[in-house]
Each structure stands twice: as structure tokens, then as C-alpha cells.
Specification:
By secondary structure, the chain is α/β, with parallel strands linked by helices. The chain has a domain of 192 residues: 4-Layer Sandwich (Metallo-beta-lactamase, Chain A). The protein contains 13 helices and 14 strands.
């Protein structure tokens, strides 16, 4: 079965390991509003780390309007996010910035368009290219019987048997992670089949600045990374950077073939050069130092270096997988957590190495 991505999820890998029970109860909103700076709030998703994910959003409340960064995975979660925004301000949303094309960052666009007439959508030109092509193909595959439906069935089966992929019964962290993954997957299948994909009205190639009253919002493209079209939103006065999935905590979600580990390391180094005081990742809590970015940069550089060295010896992909050693990075990012180790295996050991192999053998 070929890998299918929806948001940051490689479904082929997920189907090898999954778990969870049917959620018949009403879904409680899973987000927490965190003040990052004056007028800047992160809507942080509170689902436990799992095998499929929803994305953080950010509100930048200006003198007369609001700029939103990323719009979550479903119309329902977008409406929940907007409800939290309206508790903070009655100002209209003027711009939505999509950091990249994965569904967990763009599927709420239609709700913002319908709620705030005249809102403009900003994304990288590669995102504009991918949404109706690669994005559409991945979305169709995710909704096919071998996509999310099979993933959901596997989750339910695993959880009903209380079987850990590590052997024996699950621990509480595994059960919680699988339960959250099932909730996300079922909402996707329930809410997304009729969603209209809203394309950007403005595309960015290298950089763009928005001046909203007293605030400057810089939109930067530092190069390939998580995808070929990742945008970074930087607030220079506040020293806040919003990274999309270039930065994820605790364990990054990497996809093949969309991700580019060697380029990602260089892109992360450019984010470090901004010396941010607050970092809002695509997934995970607001970060108050750059240690996560530094470890991710080192890891992706190591993956790229190890893969290229193996390719020079004539190794094929399976031989490359055996040669690449990421144990120290796994131990740092996952620690003793079973769930984090599983995420690392599913999104780093597999896809990141494959993505680096593709770049080393195909990229000109």
C-alpha cells in the first residue's frame, strides 16, 4: 500500500500499528488559548501526541483587524477556534496565512471565508500549486477505504484488545494517544468530505510584509523543509516566530516524499538566526527557548549526511535504512515514552530517511 498523507500523517505506516475505541460521545473542544505577546495568542491543540494530529492556530490581533495563521483540520475545529477568538476581540479577520498545504493547516479556510467576508488568504506559491494537485490526491486517498476508514478500524481493533505494539497491554499514555488519534480521524471523515478547498488569493515567493497599524508582520520563505513551500511568520518587535511544521514538539512529523531533511536543517538554522523569544510550533506547546530547533536541525543534518554517505557506496533504500543510526536523537526526543518512540519510528526513522534518500538519489 502506498503512503498516503493527510495533514502530517503517513497512513501506510499508521495501518501497521494502530488502535482505539469508537467515540460516540460529543467531542469536547481540544484547544487552549495561550498569550504569546501583546495581542498575540496561540490556539494550542491539546490532543495528546498521537499517530494523527491537528494543528495549532495563531491569532494576531492588530489595531483594526486580525491575522490568523493556519486554520486546523476540519470545519468544526475551525469554528471552535473562531469562538475562542471572538472571546478576545470583535475585530474582523483580514488575512489568513497558511504555512503549508497539509490538511491540518488549511481545511478550516472555508469557515474563515464564510465567517469573515473579504478575508484574504496568503500562502507560498508552491502551496497554491500543491493544493489542487498533490493535496487533492492525498485527500482522496485519505477518504478512500484504504485511508482513514481502515486506520479507524485498526485503531478500534487495537484498543479493544488492549494490545501494545511493544507487546503486552497498553500503558495509559498509549491509550490516550490512540484515543485522541481516533477522535481526530473520525472528525475528519465526518466533516471533511464536502469541504471546499480555498486557494490563496496572494502567494509569496521569498518574503512579504504586512503593516497592520503599529504592528509589522513579516512572512518569510527560508527554503524547502517540511514541504517545498513552508512559510514562517515573524513578528520582529515581539520577537515571536510562528513556524508551522518546520518545528514540532516533542517529536517531529516528517513525510516522504514531501519533506527535505537536508534543506530542513538549513531552514531551521535561519529561524535560529532570528533569535526568537517565543516560538509557536505547528504542533506542541509554545516554546520559550530554541533548544528544540537546535536538536531538530542537528538531527535532520545527520540524517542527510548519513543517507548521502550510504548512497555514495551504492546502497539501496533498505540498505540505507540499516546504515542510518538515530538512536541518540530518539532518546533525546522520546525519552522513555512508548508513544513518543512510536511516533519517532513512524515519522522519523521511516519517512525522514526515505525523504533524504529521494533527495540524495533524485534531486538534481
Amino acid at each position: 500500500m502506498r503512503r498516503v498523507r493527510c495533514g502530517s500523517m503517513p497512513l501506510r505506516s499508521l495501518l501497521l500499528i494502530l488502535i482505539v475505541f469508537s467515540s460516540s460521545h460529543a467531542v469536547t473542544p481540544r484547544l487552549k488559548i495561550v498569550k504569546v505577546a501583546d495581542g498575540v495568542y496561540a490556539a494550542i491543540r491539546t490532543e495528546p501526541p498521537g499517530l494523527t494530529v491537528n494543528a495549532n492556530s495563531v491569532f494576531i490581533i492588530n489595531d483594526d483587524d486580525v491575522v490568523i495563521v493556519d486554520t486546523t483540520l476540519t470545519p468544526g475545529t475551525a469554528r471552535e477556534t473562531i469562538a475562542e477568538l471572538k472571546k478576545l476581540t470583535n475585530k474582523p479577520v483580514k488575512y489568513v496565512i497558511n504555512t503549508h498545504w497539509h490538511d491540518d493547516h488549511i481545511m478550516g479556510n472555508q469557515v474563515y471565508r464564510d465567517t469573515f467576508p473579504g478575508v484574504e488568504f496568503i500562502a507560498h506559491e508552491k502551496t497554491r500549486e500543491y493544493l489542487p494537485t498533490t493535496g487533492l490526491a492525498n485527500r482522496q486517498a485519505a477518504m478512500s477505504p484504504l485511508g482513514y476508514p481502515a486506520f479507524i478500524d485498526a485503531l478500534k481493533s487495537r484498543l479493544s484488545k488492549n494490545e501494545s505494539v511493544f507487546g503486552g497491554p497498553m500503558d495509559e499514555e498509549e491509550r490516550s494517544g490512540y484515543t485522541g488519534s481516533l477522535e481526530i480521524a473520525e472528525r475528519y471523515m465526518s466533516e471533511n468530505p464536502g469541504v471546499e478547498i480555498v486557494l490563496p488569493t496572494t502567494t509569496v515567493q521569498d518574503r512579504m510584509s504586512l503593516r497592520r497599524g503599529k504592528r509589522t508582520i513579516e512572512i518569510r520563505y527560508f527554503g524547502q523543509g517540511h514541504t517545498s513551500g513552508d512559510l514562517v511568520v515573524y513578528l520582529p518587535k515581539e520577537q515571536v516566530v510562528i513556524t508551522g511544521d518546520l518545528v514540532v514538539s516533542p517529536v517531529p512529523y516528517v513525510g516522504s516524499p514531501q519533506s527535505h531533511p537536508g534543506d530542513l536543517s538549513k531552514t531551521l538554522d535561519q529561524i535560529l538566526a532570528l533569535h526568537p523569544k517565543r516560538i509557536v510550533p505547528g504542533h506542541g506547546p509554545v516554546l520559550t527557548d530554541d533548544s528544540q530547533i537546535r536538536i531538530l536541525s542537528k538531527m535532520f543534518a545527520s540524517i542527510d549526511e548519513q543517507v548521502r554517505a550510504a548512497v555514495k557506496t551504492g546502497a539501496d533504500l533498505e540498505q540505507v535504512r540499516k546504515n542510518v543510526n538515530l538512536d541518540s536523537f530518539r532518546d533525546t526526543l522520546a525519552g522513555d515514552s512508548r508513544m513518543r518512540k512510536l511516533i519517532f519510528r513512524n515519522y522519523v526513522t521511516g519517512p525522514a530517511v526515505e525523504a533524504a534518500y529521494i533527495d540524495a538519489t533524485v534531486k538534481q
